Amino acid sequence: MPRDRSAAVIGTDGLDALIRVLAAGGRTVIGPTVRDGAIVLAEIAGGDELPYGWGVELEAGHYRLRPRDDGAAFAHSAGPQSWKTYLHPQRERQWTADRGADGAMTVTEDDTPPSSYAFLGVRPCDLRAIAVQDRVLSGGPHTDSRYRARRERAFLVAVECTEPGATCFCTSMGAGPAAEPGYDLALTEVVDAGGHRFWARAGSEEGAAVLAELPRRPTDGATETTARERVAEAADRMGRTMPEVDLRLLMRDTLQAERWNDVASRCLTCGNCTMACPTCFCTTAEDVTDLTGDHAERWRRWESCFDLEFSHLPGGPVRASGHSRYRQWATHKLGTWYDQFGSSGCVGCGRCIVWCPVGIDITEEAHALNEERAAGTAQGEAPS
Question: Looking at per-residue confidence, does 142 or 53 come out higher?
């Protein structure tokens, strides 16, 4: 066994052991698995549930599974879900209220203990997205205590990308395909004549302790070199790009661009992009009562800026048109997010492109806005 506990090489048996070690430690292990014609995130109990031998075919508004000949487990791009499904759940009860026999109301906060998750297969773009949500939900004066509790208990196993999808553009956003700090363990999958294996590195003391429990062998030069080369090659094979300009200024300078009318004519304002996005975080409150009126609950659920009621005031919605709602989403994601949180709200995962039912591509829209600005026809003044 290697003396260096921070790096090693594990096989598929080591990956299976990783899942079992994490589960034995009381964690709910969430990882990719094939279900309902897609690679989805779900609770898994063993390595045999991972999507060995499956890849994906992606395009704007298009997602299909495809078999692979090499048997790789992680040679697929981000699926329809992101890890915010578990860290920032789609629907969560906040409190209950009950009327007693004497007519008095008792309000009880929902203090269900948070799950202790282990996330297996966190892509570098999603690792960046988790860091973004950390800043949004626990980095400011108004901390989401439930998010923070789940996040502090989460164990992250990052998997570097060696085969980007046709809608990936993480390098344009300064993320991936190599894993940034923030993981407990990082894996890079290698399948070649030397076998099927994973170059594993610990990023925390807990990660090193878990790695020490797995069947492993010392890192060898061939595996490490091949792993690094595969990741470097992936950076050069992104399926999409953003224009090489300051996106904050681009959004500011093109508020009156004609392109917004073009995209508005196609956008269904369905909100799929916000639901699939790993950083969108907006929520609303929903109150429900039983038929007797003696029991009530308040739930928090995801909300979308594409919803007409999202910006509703007594005088009506602030953004009544699809034009204004799409522009709000795109300019916030790529521009004013910096002003609020110090970074872009986009990590280049491409989910919004894949899961848009009419195939609207945020990178195509950014390039079109940049071309219109360069032609001198775009205007930056906000509408009156």
Answer: 53
